Amino acid sequence: MIAHTERAHTWQRQAHGALVIIKKNALLHYLRPPVLIFGVLFPVFFFLAFKMGRPIAPEAIVPGMVAMALWFTASAVGPLVTPWERRARTYERLIAAPVSLRAILAGDVLSGALFGGCLSVVPVALGLSLTDASIARPGLLVCGIVLGALSFASLGVFLAAPPASSPSNIMLLSNLVRLPLLFVSGIFVPIARMPGWARWVAPISPLSYAGDLIRCGFGQPAYFPAWLSVLLLVAFTAALFAGACRFHRMWRAKGL
Amino acid sequence: MSAVIEVQGLTRRFGSLTAVDHVAFSIEEGELFGFLGPNGAGKTTTVRMLTGVLEPSEGTASIQGHEVRGEALLSRAHLGVVPEEANVYLDLSVWRNVMLMADLHGIPRAERVREGARLLDALGLGDRRKHKARTLSKGLRQRLMLCAALVTHPAILFLDEPTSGLDVQSARLIRGIVSELNRDGLTVFLTTHNMAEAEEMCSRLAIINHGRIAAIDTPDGLRSVVRTSQYVELRFDGEGPPAEELAALPAVSRAVAEEATLRLYTDAPGRAAAQAVRLADDRGLAIAHLCTRTPSLEDIFLHLTAGRAEEAQP
Lengths: 256, 314
What we know:
By secondary structure, chain A is an all-alpha fold. Chain A has helices at residues 2-28, 33-51, 58-74, 78-88, 91-95, 101-119, 121-130, 138-159, 167-183, 196-201, 206-217, 226-253. Chain A has one domain (2-253). Chain A is built from 12 helices and no strands. The longest helix of chain A has 28 residues, at 226-253. Chain A starts with a helix and ends with a helix. By secondary structure, chain B is an alpha/beta fold. Chain B has 2 domains: 3-218, Rossmann fold, CATH 3.40.50.300; 227-294, Alpha-Beta Plaits (2-Layer Sandwich), CATH 3.30.70. Helix content of chain B is 37%, strand content 28%. Chain B has 11 helices and 14 strands. In chain B, the strands form 3 sheets. Chain B has a 6-stranded mixed sheet, with helices on both faces. A 4-stranded antiparallel sheet of chain B has the order 2-1-4-5. A 4-stranded antiparallel sheet of chain B has the order 12-13-11-14. In chain B, helix 3 (94-104) crosses helix 4 (109-122) and helix 3 packs parallel to helix 5 (138-150). The longest helix of chain B has 16 residues, at 168-183. Chain B is elongated, with a radius of gyration of 24 Å. Mean pLDDT of chain B is 87; it is low at 308-314. The A-B interface holds A 10, 13, 16-17, 20, 23-24, 27-28, 88-90, 92-100, 252-253, 255 and B 12, 14, 48, 51-55, 72-74, 76-77, 79, 81, 83, 85, 87-92, 96, 100-101, 103-106, 148.
C-alpha cells in the first residue's frame, strides 16, 4: 500500500514536472523565429505553391492543408527546444532538477502537440468559412488532429536527440526528414493516385495516417481503415517517444 | 553529525581521457566543503556527476542516502545547484526564472511566491523582478541563479565557481549569504580556484588534481601537510651573514636570500628565529625585521598540485 502511494506520488510529481516544461516551452519557444518560419510560414507557402494555377476545387485541398499545417507546426517545437537549451546551458538546470528525462521529454512532446493542435484550428476555420468544405465525421477529425499532433511532436523530439553545436543543424536534419515524408504521405495527391513506389513508402510516414483520418473527418474517402490509422498513430507516438528517451539518455550519458 | 554526501571510487571517462579518477570523500551535514583544483582538474565533472547531469563511469555517490544513479530523482530533490556559468533563461523575467525552478521542485505556489520575493530582496534583485534576465549583468545573473537555487529549499547547495569573474560587490554579497546560510545549517559544496575565498569560507577542503584527490583536510590540517613550507623572514640592518651560514643553523632546513630579505625554511619557526637572533647577537648585528610565516593555502595548493604535475610528466 505504501509502495503504491509512493509510486502514485512519484507519477504525480513527474506529471507536474511535464506541465512545468510545457509552460516553460510555451513562454520561451513558441514565438521563436525558427518555430514560426518552419511551423507557420512553410505550410502556407507550400499550400500556395500547390494551389496556384491548378484547377482543383478549394474544398478538396482543405484536409491536406490541415494535415500539412499540423505536420509542420507540431514537429517544429521539439527540434528547437533541446538544442537551444543545450547551447544556452539551461538544459543542465533542467536535468539537475528532480524531474526525470522522460517527464522533460513528455513535456516537450506535449508542448509541440499543443502548439500544432491549436494552430491547426486556423486552417480548419479558414477551410470551413472560405470554401464548401464541411465536417462529416468530427470524431475522426479530432482523432486525426490529436493523434497526428502527438506523433509529429514525438518525431520532433526524437530528431532533437543528437548533440549539435547549433539549433540550426537540428532544424536542417528535421527538414531532411519532414520534407521528403510530406511528398509521400498523400497530402498533395491522394495515396491511391500516387505511383506504385510511393504507395509502398507512404505507410512508413505517420503523416499518411493522420492525413487519412483528417480527410475522413471532412467526408472524403480514406485509403487506410480508420481503426488502422488510429492504431498506427498510437504506435508511432509510442515508438518515437521511446526512441527519443533512449537516444537523449544515450547522448546525455556520453556527456553531450 | 551524519554524512550527507558519500562518494566512493567515483570515476568519469570521456573516451581515453579519465577526467575524474576514483575520487572518494564524504561530507557531513552542515559543512562548507571546498573543492579546489586547477583548471581541468575534474572539479566541474565531479559536481556534474553529483548533481545528476553526468553519469559516472564507475563508482558510487549518494546524496542524503540516495544513490545518484539508482535513486536519481530522490537524490536531486535535496539539491540546489549554481553552475559555473549563470545559465538563466535570458528571455524570461527575473521573477519567472525563480518561479520556474521552484515549480520544477514542486514547491507550493504560496510558499514559492513568498520565498521568491524574500530571496530577491535579500540578493538585491527585488526592484528588478520584472526585468528580463537578458538585461542583467553577469554579477546580477549569478545572484539570480543563487536565488533560483535557494527558493527550492535545498539541503545541500552546490556552487561551481560562484564568484568567478564577478564584481567585488556581487562576490562579497554571494559569499556573505552563503556563509550565513551555512551557519544556519545548510551544507555547501563549493568548487573554486580562488584560494582566499576557500580559506575564508570553508571548514574543510579537498584538493583535486589530474582527476585525483591530492589531499582532504581542514585548512590548518593542510598546512601541517607542508610543514617545511613554514619559514622565518629576516632582514638585517646593514649587511648580514651569508645565506649558507644561516642554512647551517640546526633548526633551519634551507635558507633563501631575496635581495636583502632572507627566508629560513623550518618545521620549528620559534627555534629557528631564536637561533637567528643568537647568531645576530654573537656577531653584533642588528635585526631590522623578523617574523614567522605559515604557508598560505596557495602555497599548499601549489605544493600539492605541482607534485602531482611532476608525477604525471613522462
